[in-house]
TrEMBL record:
<keyword id="KW-0808">Transferase</keyword>
<dbReference type="InterPro" id="IPR041525">
    <property type="entry name" value="N/Namide_PRibTrfase"/>
</dbReference>
<protein>
    <recommendedName>
        <fullName>Nicotinate phosphoribosyltransferase</fullName>
        <ecNumber>6.3.4.21</ecNumber>
    </recommendedName>
</protein>
<keyword id="KW-0662">Pyridine nucleotide biosynthesis</keyword>
<dbReference type="Pfam" id="PF17956">
    <property type="entry name" value="NAPRTase_C"/>
</dbReference>
<dbReference type="InterPro" id="IPR040727">
    <property type="entry name" value="NAPRTase_N"/>
</dbReference>
<feature type="domain" description="Nicotinate/nicotinamide phosphoribosyltransferase">
    <location>
        <begin position="153"/>
        <end position="331"/>
    </location>
</feature>
<dbReference type="InterPro" id="IPR006405">
    <property type="entry name" value="Nic_PRibTrfase_pncB"/>
</dbReference>
<comment type="similarity">
    <text>Belongs to the NAPRTase family.</text>
</comment>
<feature type="domain" description="Nicotinate phosphoribosyltransferase N-terminal">
    <location>
        <begin position="9"/>
        <end position="131"/>
    </location>
</feature>
<keyword id="KW-0597">Phosphoprotein</keyword>
<dbReference type="InterPro" id="IPR041619">
    <property type="entry name" value="NAPRTase_C"/>
</dbReference>
<feature type="domain" description="Nicotinate phosphoribosyltransferase C-terminal">
    <location>
        <begin position="380"/>
        <end position="437"/>
    </location>
</feature>
<dbReference type="GO" id="GO:0004516">
    <property type="term" value="F:nicotinate phosphoribosyltransferase activity"/>
</dbReference>
<comment type="pathway">
    <text>Cofactor biosynthesis; NAD(+) biosynthesis; nicotinate D-ribonucleotide from nicotinate: step 1/1.</text>
</comment>
<dbReference type="GO" id="GO:0016757">
    <property type="term" value="F:glycosyltransferase activity"/>
</dbReference>
<keyword id="KW-0436">Ligase</keyword>
Length: 447
């Protein structure tokens, strides 16, 4: 059978084997699970939360349709009474989460799901899948934004993304983090993201004369005449653009920009800028692409390369230097009682929790505190209710609103977290009340 991205079968087998065991034993009291990251990757000073809107949409529409139940029956793993119980399974629980675009750190719950055990358990794999992927990409994209402030950054990653959903959601995550647009048309249409596009080298190669290729493209795209000039000789192509510009201008067509996709981008940009300026085209922008990431952007910015915008693809969409997070979705409370995992190297803090953020007088983040959910502390609470009774608490947050929140978050980062090098860690403390509860549980005493 063909599965949609929202299918209830998009899960790990063990979620369903546990559901059957819960069903057989009548175990279905209220459970709370929290999603968090155990440690930052070695190349990261912070992470940026993403994927919440996709999670809420998944939970709102969660159900087992006839085709899915039939497919499960054909496996002969599950008895008929259990499969009949899945017919009516819907998510009826609560979700508390950090807003998309929020900067966060290890051990801080990004999202908490509270629901009858079967519901909360079933959604584990897909919820982690959605939050993990967009968080990985948004965190990488945010570093690019910090490396090249005030520059147009465009997602160029479709062709090397790990599948269609990854391509669309990475475009969304990068826009959330501050990119200016995407080349992926489907993502632009789905999420109202500005879409950018120029031409490929094959277009220029299809012509015997490079200048004719430029002219035909400009006449075909009179409001979007950005020309790719590095197919043969980058500087010679820039001179052809200068010669072509007056002819096009006579017909009301202004060349918008040129793109460089290979070689020493900084040096080519300096030479091309000089050629364009001397030819009276100071208003024509230079756009660069080709294996870019935050480190290469930082280098080009440090060199003061005259580049107005960048296309960033593979290394950002796959988060090449840190492609995964050590994230977990763990039970912290069941039937009103706190639960704590004590596995070696993978212990968890018990009970439902809150995260408070302190900010200095200059608006810069000063430290976070992880507490029990019923503790009240100074600072901004980062977790907020987003779903109750299986329904959203408010209208969906627009991507543009989440993007503005992410921009404010990046502005509030301390200098140590803004750098590309791993510097001093951001201070995250755990409250005495939470530590005491963990100690009591470890000693076998009631929470």
């Amino acid at each position: 059978m063909k599965l949609s991205p929202g299918s209830a079968l998009l899960t790990d087998l063990y979620e369903l084997t546990m559901l059957q065991a819960y069903f057989d034993a009548g175990v279905n009291e209220t459970a709370s699970f929290e999603l968090f990251v155990r440690a930052l990757p070695m190349q990261r000073n912070f992470l940026m939360a993403g994927g919440l809107e996709q999670v809420l949409d998944y939970l709102e529409h969660l159900r087992f349709g006839p085709d899915e139940l039939s497919a499960l029956a054909k496996t002969r793993r599950f008895p008929a009474p259990f499969l009949r119980s899945l017919e009516h399974l819907r998510f009826t629980g609560e979700v508390d989460a950090m807003r998309e675009g929020t900067v966060f750190f290890p051990d801080e719950p990004v999202l908490r799901i509270t629901a009858p055990m079967r519901e909360a358990q079933l959604v584990e794999s897909r919820v982690m899948n959605l939050v993990h992927f967009e968080t990985v990409v948004a965190s990488k994209a945010a570093r690019c934004v910090l490396a090249a402030p005030d520059k147009l950054l465009v997602d160029f990653g479709l062709r090397r993304a790990h599948g269609a959903e990854a391509a669309v959601l990475s475009a969304r995550a990068s826009y959330l983090a501050g990119f200016g647009g995407t080349a992926t048309l489907a993502a632009g249409l789905a999420f109202d993201i500005p879409v950018y596009g120029t031409m490929a080298h094959s277009y220029v190669q299809a012509y015997a004369d490079e200048a004719v290729a430029f002219e035909d493209f400009a006449r075909s795209q009179p409001t979007n005449a950005t020309l790719l000039i590095d197919t043969y000789d980058t500087e010679e192509a820039a001179r052809k653009v200068v010669a072509l510009a007056p002819l096009l201008l006579n017909d009301g067509i202004a060349i918008r920009g040129v793109r460089i996709d290979s070689g020493d981008l900084g040096e080519h940009a300096r030479r091309v800028r000089r050629i364009l300026d001397e030819g009276g085209l100071s208003g024509v922008t230079i756009f660069a692409s080709g294996n870019l990431d935050e480190h290469r952007l930082h280098q080009l910015m440090s060199e003061q390369a005259p580049i107005d915008g960048f296309g960033v693809g593979t290394r950002m969409n796959t988060s090449a230097d840190a492609p995964y997070l050590d994230c977990a979705y763990k039970l912290v409370e069941y039937g009103g009682e706190p639960r704590r995992k004590r596995s070696e190297g993978k212990s968890t803090w018990p009970a439902r929790k809150a995260v408070y953020r302190l900010t200095g007088p200059n608006g810069v983040m000063a430290g976070d505190l992880i507490t029990l959910a019923n503790e009240r502390r100074d600072g901004e609470p980062l977790l907020e209710p987003v779903m109750r009774g299986g329904k959203r608490c408010a209208q969906p947050v627009t991507l543009h609103s989440a993007r503005a929140h992410a921009w404010r978050q990046l502005r509030a980062l301390p200098n140590a977290q803004r750098t590309l090098d791993v510097d001093e860690p951001y201070p995250v403390a755990v409250s005495d009340g939470l530590r005491e509860l963990a100690r009591r549980l470890d000693e076998g005493r009631p929470g």
